[in-house]
Amino acid sequence: MTIKHTAIASALVAAFVAGNAAAAEKLTIATVNNGDMVRMQKLTGDFTAKNPGIELEWVTLEENILRQRVTTDVATKGGQYDVMTIGTYEVPIWGKKGWLVSLNDLPGSYDVDDLLPAIRGGLTVDGKLFAAPFYGESSMVMYRKDLMAKAGLEMPKAPTWDFIGKAARAMTDKANEVYGVCLRGKAGWGENMAFLTAASNSFGAKWFDMKWNPQFTGEPWKNTLNYYINLMNDAGPPGASSNGFNENLTLFQTGKCGMWIDATVAASFVTNPKDSKVADKVGFALAPDTGLGKRGNWLWAWSLAIPAGTKKSDSAKKFVAWATSKEYLALVASKEGWANVPPGTRSSLYTNPEYAKIPFAQMTLDSINSADPTQPTVDPVPYVGVQFVAIPEFQGIATSVGQQFSAALAGTITADEALKNAQALTERAMKKARYIK
User: Fold this and answer.
1) Which of 238, 246, 349, 403 is most buried as measured by Cβ atoms within 10 A of its Cβ?
2) Is domain 138-298+378-432 in CATH 3.40.50.300, yes or no?
């Protein structure tokens, strides 16, 4: 071949490659910076190999910043993102507003009926699935079996709050920096209010009555907050009003907590001997109740959704289907082991004999199944959501209420003052939003 012919051939190859590159469709994916999502990014070579016409661009953000960015983009139909990681709180609100693309036309091989009913229900609006769950969680009791035995007690599978209080106080040894219970105290709608709202359901409390009147001055909320503050003063760690998920995780992993009531996804962290000094001493139980028919556990899923502003919904659906499929779970298991598979989304995971061997698998499933986002409280309410109220105003209101409750835990105001302030600020916000007059 002559030099001239070689140059022409090279040019044709370059043009072909450039043409293919130009034809590739780029998906911009906004996601939260947690371990499961970081792992997904590392494994996406599997997706691009199967879909050579699609390129992926990642925008990985801290949770609060992610919420701000995707909320702005989806509300304005800005089209900045083609796939968004959003929570169970956003889906019913945004789905109703027409801000999300329906996923009802995912291929049959996706097996939408394999999604756990409680998780699927929280992502469905008027019969349409508007997000696909990447991982799902509830909350449960994680406890030190050795400290429980030392206290002469045995944890029931389904404990009451009375038992939790008794056990926490019995396990506390403040002189040796061992605290009977660690609970969220840091202010925020997704921090202390996630725990306290879920717990309040089991005490018979609710955010609003059927006419949207706030209910913080009623006995159930008083009982909830007083129980929590008294328990934390007696058996909790110092500085608890600053502790969120990560702070309590560290306390538990370093042997300073007798019990921790928090997200089921934490089970793999507290039982991992690489990170946890007490990995071989951890037991699990359902979140507590008071005998009224509701347990104090929440329900959440980080899910992938497609904003209505995208022009690439077909490619986006291919990615969403891949990342939330049975095949993806098997891929993670092959690389990282079954204990690190994203939990809480599919029934088939919990019938898998390999996964069933994991000590927290069944308790996670039982916890998820015991939560009902459509009937979260003892009495009827006009809202859906277990540890949140699915209205746009909730984030702001609950963060303000969370500040009041955190201040009460810190001792700068009383529980009664916190509840009075919560009632007043919630009433003011609901009047402004015209839910009440």
Assistant:
1) 349
2) no
